[in-house]
Amino acid sequence: MNKFESRYAQSPKEVKQMDTATLRENFLIENIFEANEVNLTLSHFDRYIVGGAMPVDGKLDLPNPSDLKANYFLERRELGIICVGGKAIVTADGQKFELDYKEALYIGRGTKAVSFESVDKNQPAKLYINSAPAHKAYPAKKVSKAEAEIVEMGSPETANHRIINKLLVNSVLQTCQLQMGMTELKSGSVWNTMPAHTHDRRMEAYFYFEVPKGQSICHFMGEPQETRHVWMQNNEAVISPNWSIHAGAGTSNYTFIWGMAGENLDYGDMDHCAITELR
Which amino acids does the record list as binding Zn(2+) (predicted)? Predict the structure, then answer.
C-alpha cells in the first residue's frame, strides 16, 4: 500500500494567521516510514516531493501517483535517496545499488522502474526520498560519505558545532536542480542553520533523525521578522518555503537531511539574517 498527498503553497500573509494545528497540517510531514509502504508528499513549492520507503516483506516499487499525470514517476523528474535505516538494495532500470547507512543515491530523469528492498528484513531499510522536476537526464550514481564534500562549521561555544556532508550537490555529481546533504551535530550542540537565512530562489525540506528517545526538535520557520515554530519528533520532515527561514534547536544533538530545489545550484545563494534581527 502506498500513500500520496498534495499540499498547496502558502504566502507569508496566510502563514501569519495560522494556529499551531494549521501550521503543522500545512508544513509538517509525519509517518514518513511505515512498513511495506512508500509514502510521498508533493509540495507546490517548486513541485518538490518528500517521502520514504520502508521495505520489510519483499520489494517495493516506486509508485506513479495519478496527480503527476506522467507515464511513470521519473518521466519528468529526478530522484535523491539517502538510507537512514538498515542496508538497502535500490534497483533502477535493472541497475542495482546497495546502500548502507547514510549513503546516498541519485537517479535521473527517464528511469522507468525503481524498486526498494531490504538486505535483512530484521533490520529493514528506511529510504528517505526527495524529488524535483528535471529538464535533462543524468546518470544514476551512488555517493558515500567518503565521497561527499565535507564542511565543518560552528563551535561548541555557540552550541552549533556541526559537520555538513554535501552528498547530492553539483560539486559532487550532476543534477538538474535537486540538491541533498546531511548535517550531523556534535555532542553538546543543538542549533542548526544559525545564523539563519532565506533564499528566494529555491525552497527546502528538512528531515530530522537520530533524535534520541524522549527528545524533540523545535524547528523555526517564517519570515525573519515574523517567525513561527513547529515541534518535531524523530523521522519527521518539514517543508520550508523559499521566503522562510529554516533553522532548529533540539533538546539533544541530532542529524538532519536537507534537500532543496529551485532556479539555481548555487549552495551559497543565501540571504543571511542576523541573529539579533530575528523576531
Answer: 197, 199, 204, 246
Enumerate the known binding-site residues for Zn(2+).
Answer: 197, 199, 204, 246
Residue the block writes with cell 494567521? 17
Encode pLDDT of 165-194 as tens digits: 999 999 999 999 999 999 999 999 999 999
Binding-site residues? 197, 199, 204, 246
What are the CA-CA distances from residue 58 to residues 114, 122, 221, 248, 253 (Å)? 14, 12, 38, 36, 34
pLDDT at residue 265, rounded to an integer: 87
Q: Which of these, 206, 147, 204, lies nearest to 178 by C-alpha position?
A: 204
Alpha-carbon span 98 to 129, nearest angstrom: 16
Rounded to whole angstroms, the Cα distance separating 184 from 167 reads 13
Amino acid at residue number 271: D
Helices (H), 139-274: none
pLDDT of res. 158: 96
Nearest by Cα to 162 from 186, 145, 127: 186
Hey, is 118 helix, strand or coil?
strand
Domain ranges of the chain: 2-277
Task: Please answer whether residues 171 and 265 qualify as being in contact, where contact means their C-beta atoms are separated by less than 8 angstroms.
Answer: no
Q: Mention the CATH class of domain 2-277.
A: mainly beta
Q: How far apart (Å, rounded) are the C-alpha atoms in residues 107 and 7?
A: 24
